[in-house]
Amino acid sequence: MQNAAIAVQMSCDALGGAATGRRWLRFTAFKNRDRFPVTIEAPMTKDLQAAIAAMEVGRDAYLLTSFGKPFVIEGLGNKMRDWCDEAGLPQCSSHGLRKAAAVALPESGASASELMAIFGWTNLKTAQIYVEKANRRRMTANAFERRERSSEAESVSLSRPQNPIETNEEKSDA
User: What is the spatial distance between Cα 6 and Cα 120, in angstroms, rounded to a whole number?
Assistant: First the structure.
């Protein structure tokens, strides 16, 4: 469950952007925070800002338990399980949703380096896995779209050739 909490369990260092009108969230990724801390800075989407505005939040944590305390890792994982079930998504999990985002972002054009910045990864290989998965899906979709357009543009008879010009039967190499 530790991975499930990486993007949510955070120590909030700063919210900024008043000058630009865009708010940013800066936090230290929970995984490996003591040995190899990674600071992640991400713009707050309008949806996230609206969600935060609609809920009671703590000074150092955005997600609080029903007791007003920050979630512990296991508790957050369990609560995510409850939320996914309530939403009718029993197949989803915190880690699965994170992985889905890691594929959706490169499908919309994000690079491996951008994924590293977003997810706090320090190894390019990790990001490249998701970029390659997205590229395979994109290439497959492109190939099928081209095939459909090609099929619509030309009609090729699958019947037997009617004259010798349409075949190699009459050719002679002599």
Answer: 9
